[in-house]
Amino acid sequence: MKELNKLYEKWMSLQPLSEKQQDILSKKFTVEYNYNSNHIEGNTLTYGQTELLLMFGTVSGENHLHDFVEMKASQVGLKMMSEEVKAENMPLTQNFIRTLHKTLLREDYTVYRNLPGGVTTSFIIHAGQYKTRPNSVITRYGDRFEYASPEETPALMTSLVDWYNKEEKRGKLSPVELAALFHYRYIRIHPFEDGNGRIARLLVNYIFSRHNWPMIVVRSRNKNEYLEALHQTDMLVGTAPSDGAAATISQIEPFLKYFKELVKRELQYNISFVEKSGENIWWYDGQQLEFRSPNVPKLLSILQQNPSITYAELSKELGINTSAVQKLLTGLKEKGYIQRRNHEKMWYVSAVSSLLKA
């Protein structure tokens, strides 16, 4: 915990950020959080599509309409959570959690499943209401893991929210420990028929924001690490949902260890993003980019300054032939750092230059 606290102290020593730094960091977090939290759950929008949608309201690509609507709803949920944090003396309530869920899912919808023998079954996902049917998950090891039953859920959620409000006042757990334990207890209840992971990650950031910690992103590229930490903790705590919903901080050691490392990575990322600056320093989805060719950061800068530049003009600016330019552009597109805006002969750069903060 010492290293984590040092990083937090370092972060606080950088405050207050300049207005420009804060604006860029806020926009970057908006895209990274919404992209990753939804991508973990199967949303097909790319990072670039998410950025164009949330920052400019532009729909790019031929993805299912549901994915675009879901991403917009996610951003509304993030804003709602951020507004709720401002009411400092307001305790966490079940009504807020259910309202947050209603915001994410928007409305009830029917799910259809094909059973063996050609039989089709269906059930309704309820937005803003606790589950009315049992839910479970097949782990990566092939076994079925049951969450709290519909009958257990209201009482367990009451206990969870009451525990959180009392524990927060008591102040014995650090914000990181409190957020980790709340997340784990909540996931073991799985109170809704869908959207539980997204709600859990929103509420983690609700807790961090209440305690003046920067919000974090659970990166979809590390999804297996996230799920494995939960699984290892489940094995220690036990399979009974009531045991999971009442787990203690000492019982969730595997998840707490993972969670602390996650927060450390995110803090270090934020610190580096604020402190580092230079022509060759660029950032993308929680990582500092490394370029083999000096032409790449130069190319990104040119595209950022002149989005409608032609291949011939790029060739002249970089001093390389058009074939080499096209090869560089293809590589950057494949990595998601740049994209063509739909119906426009313009480039859009998703990678962020450290010089923008100057």
Structure characterization notes:
The protein is mostly helical and 358 residues long. The chain folds into 2 domains: 2-275, Fido-like domain (Fic-like fold), CATH 1.10.3290.10; 282-357, Winged helix-like DNA-binding domain superfamily/Winged helix DNA-binding domain (Arc Repressor Mutant, subunit A), CATH 1.10.10. It has 14 helices and 9 strands. It has helices at residues 2-13, 19-40, 47-56, 65-85, 94-105, 153-170, 175-189, 196-210, 223-237, 241-244, 253-275, 295-305, 311-318, 322-335; strands at 109-114, 120-125, 136-138, 144-146, 282-284, 287-288, 338-340, 347-349, 352-353. A 3-stranded antiparallel beta sheet has the order 6-5-9, with no helix packed on it. A two-stranded antiparallel ribbon has the order 1-2. Strand 5 (282-284) and strand 6 form a beta hairpin. Helix 4 packs antiparallel against helix 5. The longest helix is centred in the C-terminal third of the chain and has 23 residues, at 253-275. The radius of gyration is 22 Å and the shape is globular. It starts with a helix and ends in a 5-residue tail after the last strand.
